[in-house]
Amino acid sequence: MTSTLLIVQFVLAIILTITILLQKSSSIGLGAYSGSNDSLFGAKGPGNFLSKATMFLGLLFVINTVALGYIYNQQKMKSAVDSIKTDTLIPTTPKSDSTAPAAPTNAVPSVPTIPESK
Questions:
Q1: Which parts of the sequence are annotated with region: Disordered (predicted)?
Q2: Tell me: the pLDDT tens digits for 97-113?
Q3: CA neighbor of 54 nearest in space, from 81, 80, 91, 25
């Protein structure tokens, strides 16, 4: 999913750059390559069409950027420790040694005492 959105992001960035550079500016820019006023869009059409296309592509670019940020943030919140299988790392039953003495079942471990300071 993220790789698809990343490819879409690169394509949108390239197309958005081209539409911005094709717009009419104070200097002619790359608009000279789009033709004269008698082009496909008419005398006033290219400016209006290109500005609407730029706004639409910019909106798609921002939405795609927010989606990518959200997805990458969700993946970052997952820890590598969460994916470790613990059942293979911790043995289920320890091996008992028949020569070791068995611990009494009613024995209570002693608690160390802290000496009082005067």
A1: 92-118
A2: 556 566 666 666 677 77
A3: 25
